[in-house]
């Protein structure tokens, strides 16, 4: 595996972990002004580990972060209303534009 492949995979994993942590905080704290402070603390933690390049140290950091995230996962995460599982998902679906009953072909066999 080349260095660029590792860094691409590594970067996407770190971004995914960061997003999941931010999303989980938003599940717990809906008010954005309070959430912003928590988001800044999460960002500061990521920045603190930015220059760690040793694979074993990174593995330990990731393991600890995943454990913390799993421990703090919200039991009933927020789902936007119009997303699958949301309160408005598939509510008032527009009617189909296809004919319900084809009057022309029904009478002429």
From TrEMBL:
Keywords tagged on the record: Acetylation, Electron transport, Membrane, Mitochondrion, Mitochondrion inner membrane, Phosphoprotein, Respiratory chain, Transport
Record's subunit section: Mammalian complex I is composed of 45 different subunits.
TM stretches of this protein: none
Compartment(s) of residence: Mitochondrion inner membrane
Name under which the protein is recorded: NADH dehydrogenase [ubiquinone] 1 beta subcomplex subunit 9
Lineage: Eukaryota, Fungi, Dikarya, Basidiomycota, Agaricomycotina
Broad class of the protein's primary localization: mitochondrion
Domain named Complex 1 LYR protein: residues: 14-70
One Gene Ontology cellular component: mitochondrial inner membrane
Ranges in coiled-coil conformation: none
Cited Pfam families: Complex1_LYR
Protein's job: Accessory subunit of the mitochondrial membrane respiratory chain NADH dehydrogenase (Complex I), that is believed to be not involved in catalysis. Complex I functions in the transfer of electrons from NADH to the respiratory chain. The immediate electron acceptor for the enzyme is believed to be ubiquinone.
Membrane disposition: Peripheral membrane protein
GO BP terms in the entry: mitochondrial electron transport, NADH to ubiquinone
Family listed: Belongs to the complex I LYR family.
